Amino acid sequence: xxxxxxxxxxxxxxxxxWRSKDAARKGMKMVLSILFISFIYLLLGVLLSFNSLLxxxxxxxxxxxxxxxxxxxxxxxxxxxxxxxxxxxxxxxQDGRTVVQADxxxxxxxxxxxxxxxxxxxxxxxxxxxFAVLAQPITYSLGVLPSWVEGPALQTHVGEALAYYSIxxxxxxxxxxxxxxxxxxxxxxxxxxxxGTNATLWAERLTPLWVxxxxxxxxxxxxxxxxxxxxxxxxxxIGLRKKKRKERKARKARAxxxxxxxxx
Length: 264
Description:
By secondary structure, this protein is mainly α. It contains eleven helices and no strands.
């Protein structure tokens, strides 16, 4: 006979507030998570800079996929925890106890994951947006002249000949901005470099989009919170059912092994 399946246990929960203080705190903490991902992007991007286009694109896609999975599971854990808290608050409300506003805001809300990501992405999005607007094709620039040339360069005819070396092709601000923007989107830029200058320029102009990909997986994971609670509650019910079955078998075994008392 097939085992009787346990019906999924769906517990009601209170719906929280998507724009809450606890969500804002989680968003500010996620800034560090995105910074950690950016460090991994930079480190692995430098180590896995293959000359082969196929290998570089493949490794870049794997790096981004792993980062997205990391954020997804973070969001799933957060959504499950908020749903569990919502179940507790619902039970408190059913028992006639007062649910304070702070506890209500902490409960699960499907839009809360997107709000958390929005808060976390603000500094990165603004930085990459400025860079995307100012990005220009990278051109060849002359190197820095040695110090011993400074004396002869004071002469008129020599100075005129070396004047082009003193021209700055790009401001220092843009150079620093490019380093930061590329560091936090390294897998995408790394893959575009082998396609040429125009592809690299477009990849740089799309950095506000690239920086959002992995963090958005957090929002998708957060949406799975209620489903995870159903699985957990069902697992608990299955465990209790097995425990009761074992207890019944143990009682029957004790009753069967019990010898009748000898009459005198």
